[in-house]
Amino acid sequence: MSKSFERYQKRKLITSYFSVVLSISLVLFLLGVLGMLVLNTKKLADHFKEQIRISVFLKDNAKQVEVDQLQNSLLLSDYTKSAEYVSKDEAAQIHSEEIGENFLDFLGYNPLKNSIDISLKADFVSSEKVEEIALELQSRDYVEEVSYDKPLISLLTKNVKRISFWILTASAIFTLIAVLLINSSIRLSIYSKRFIIKTMQMVGATKRFIRGPFIWTNIKLGILGAFFALIALGVFLYYLNLNFPELNIFQDQVVLAIIFAGVLALGVLISFISTYFATQRFLNLRTDDLYY
Hints:
By secondary structure, the chain is of the alpha+beta class.
């Protein structure tokens, strides 16, 4: 009979520990994903900003030496990521492929201009800075026109700020929810041992002595949960990088180290704080209150 009861207690204890580890793992995994999203928000925004192009259309009488000088000066500029020369013939070929027919056949001439397509660095993609760059380029005698999508730049800048704000807000809310979920799991685990806590207190054990084993046990569970969360996060990032290589997720080792260290630290910290206050609550309860 006693052995059967011991096995029952052991299974109950293992189930309790398993639920704590599982809840910690799931919550820390979600926090890790959110952390990656927050720290890579700028990288994602920069990726979209750098798709913006400025087209510098050149006059027909522009000399090749002037074009080469302009292209070289653009490549040396702080705001330029790339500057590619596109001849009018290449532009005609690209346009014909896009529309599915050769428009030169019925026009009889090529109305397009030689141009230099500029990709800007993300820090310079704003309505004001792009306008300054466009005016500076337009001032050259051999430049016919400088073209770029003004509404798109304005909309992109506005949406990047808006999305960044909501990502930070959502991260704060989910972090709070995560702390509450882990805290609830640990509180339920300790709740099942409230009579043991009170019995130890009644025979003279100090609060610190009673808290110690509970804190240490749950810290180990927190570390174990963080370990499983890190494995899941690593697999998730691997497949994300496989499908979206342009994000270069594994390129920034510092960000990855911060995320992984943060997940482990949160697992330990939340487990410690939750266990401390949960045991403290039952230590301060009167014996009659344990039944409610």
